[in-house]
Design a protein that fits this description.
By secondary structure, the chain is an alpha+beta fold. A two-stranded antiparallel sheet has the order 1-2.
């Protein structure tokens, strides 16, 4: 063995995937994901873009 254990996950690939912008199919802008909480306390994730 080489003395140093290898990581099971490819950290650079995960960082690239996280930093890549998801673009809207309609307008081409970056899609922003936010968490909204309803008055009853239910949480939901919403994608904000041209389609409000």
């Amino acid at each position: 063995m080489s003395g140093k254990a290898k990581s099971k996950t490819d950290v650079s690939a995960r960082a690239d995937a996280k930093n890549s912008a998801r673009l809207c199919r309609n307008c081409g802008n970056k899609v922003e994901v936010v968490m909204s909480v309803s008055p009853t306390g239910k949480k939901s994730m919403k994608r904000l873009c041209c389609e409000n």
